[in-house]
């Protein structure tokens, strides 16, 4: 099954929790805190591979989660870092954020690896919080939790040449005679359902050719399989516009040429400006050769007469493609401003008066501090209250008008404010 789009869900690993532990050994009464830190969560990355040419795998497996960091242990043992998860995608896949449409990565080169989501930080063990005034902290820090992101994958075939035209004009047959590709070929009015790739050898050099599934009127607006396959043309350097010169499908070859050019222009100006070689196929069945003059007048260049079935004009087509590609710049990855998932703000906070004598404090700083709060631990609450003073939260509450006896809500917990 061919698929060139997919929606998946990715989540980097959570950080491991810090450990609350005290050293114990025979004849050692007060060994002190020895809780280790939690491990960092695994990252998420994408890797471009050439042994895949479809996104069909992602139709069945949609959720991808990196390994969580291991919790810290006693004896100052830090938890292991979670394993990174590398997701293999076909070369030419564009990775986008589903919510904004921003391009995260263009997997253009084989073997390219791009990390897109960072793992959560591991929590600190109680040994970390030991100081001269707090000799035996009975609390540790929880690991940082990561968010799940929705990602869109779009495969854009990377080929030097793209064969375009209406269904059943002979594109698949042409590909089969100029390369070793063996696409399915049949005499029907419907289009091929997936791009086929072939490699053409000229002298000691090679170039790739893609048979782009047939376009129809309205393709640029999404009619038929238009949008699904117009994206594959964007990567090509040269277009070979194939026309059925015999009119065997009951269509006018000249109008076919105009219609396809119109669809390219409607979809993208850059597509309309790509260099083209116009090929009039099925020349062995032609009866009206005035078509050649009309196409030449429209395109500005002499079309090539070809019959893929009897291999007439095939060598000339290969030479013309080769010579055109020699003059064109090599393909390049997309030019874009990379979309990066923002790391949560861990320093900001807001104070809001929610009612008479009621206040709520929330924000990234509160969420960060909450990782080290254990409500039933005196040491933990002392540490938390001191952080509130040192980080300016107390000052902000007073500025908002809080008084002794008022209720302050933080972390879904209510406190009575005492001056």
Structure description:
By secondary structure, this protein is of the alpha/beta class. The chain is 21% helix and 23% strand. The chain has 9 helices and 18 strands. The strands form 4 sheets. It has a 6-stranded mixed sheet, with helices on both faces. Strands 3-1-8-5-6 form a 5-stranded mixed sheet, covered by helices on one side. Helix 3 (253-267) packs parallel to helix 5. The longest helix has 15 residues, at 253-267. The chain is elongated, with a radius of gyration of 32 Å. The N and C termini lie far apart (68 Å). The model is unreliable at 185-191 and 217-227 (pLDDT under 50).
What topology does this entry show?
Layout: E1 5-11, E2 44-49, E3 63-65, E4 85-90, E5 93-97, E6 103-107, E7 113-117, E8 148-155, E9 161-164, H1 171-178, E10 196-202, E11 205-211, H2 226-233, E12 238-244, H3 253-267, H4 269-272, E13 276-281, H5 290-299, E14 304-305, H6 314-327, E15 350-355, E16 358-362, H7 364-370, H8 378-390, H9 393-400, E17 407-410, E18 413-416
Parallel strand pairs: 1-3, 2-4, 9-11, 9-12, 12-13, 13-14, 16-17
Antiparallel strand pairs: 1-8, 2-7, 5-6, 5-8, 10-11, 15-16, 17-18
Helix pairs in contact: 3-5
Question: Which structural traits does this protein have?
Answer:
single chain; 9 helices; 18 strands; elongated
């Amino acid at each position: 099954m061919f698929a060139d789009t997919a929606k998946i869900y990715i989540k980097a690993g959570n950080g491991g929790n810090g450990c609350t532990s005290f050293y114990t050994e025979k004849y050692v009464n007060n060994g002190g805190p020895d809780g280790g830190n939690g491990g960092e969560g695994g990252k998420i990355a994408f890797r471009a591979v050439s042994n895949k040419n479809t996104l069909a795998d992602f139709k069945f497996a949609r959720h991808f989660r990196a390994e969580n960091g291991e919790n810290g242990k006693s004896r100052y043992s830090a938890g292991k870092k979670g394993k990174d998860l590398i997701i293999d995608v076909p070369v030419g896949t564009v990775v986008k954020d589903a919510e904004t449409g921003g391009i995260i990565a263009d997997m253009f080169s084989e073997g390219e690896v791009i990390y897109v989501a960072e793992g959560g930080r591991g929590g600190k063990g109680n040994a970390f919080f030991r100081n001269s005034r707090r000799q035996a902290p009975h609390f540790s820090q929880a690991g940082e939790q990561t968010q799940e992101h929705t990602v869109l994958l779009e495969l854009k075939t990377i080929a030097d040449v793209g064969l375009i035209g209406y269904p059943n004009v002979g594109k698949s047959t042409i590909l089969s005679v100029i390369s070793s590709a063996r696409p399915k070929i049949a005499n029907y009015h419907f289009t091929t359902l997936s791009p086929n790739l072939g490699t053409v050898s000229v002298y000691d050099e090679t170039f790739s050719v893609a048979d782009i599934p047939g376009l129809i009127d309205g393709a640029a607006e999404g009619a038929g399989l238009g949008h699904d396959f117009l994206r594959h043309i964007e990567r090509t350097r040269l277009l070979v516009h194939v026309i059925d010169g015999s009119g065997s499908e009951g269509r006018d070859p000249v109008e076919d040429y105009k219609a396809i050019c119109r669809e390219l222009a409607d979809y993208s100006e850059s597509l309309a400006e790509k260099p083209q070689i116009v090929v009039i196929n099925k020349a062995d069945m032609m009866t009206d050769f005035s078509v050649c003059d009309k196409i030449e007048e429209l395109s500005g260049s002499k079309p090539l007469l070809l019959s893929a079935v009897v291999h007439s004009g095939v060598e000339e087509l290969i030479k013309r493609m080769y010579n055109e590609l020699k003059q064109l710049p090599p393909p390049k990855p997309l030019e874009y401003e990379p979309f990066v998932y923002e790391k949560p703000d861990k320093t900001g906070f807001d104070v809001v008066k929610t009612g008479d004598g009621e206040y709520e404090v929330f924000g990234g700083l509160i969420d960060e501090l909450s990782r080290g709060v254990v409500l039933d631990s005196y040491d933990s609450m002392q540490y938390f209250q001191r952080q509130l003073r040192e980080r300016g939260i107390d000052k902000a509450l007073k500025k908002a008008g809080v008084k002794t006896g008022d209720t302050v809500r933080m972390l879904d917990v209510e406190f009575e404010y005492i001056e």
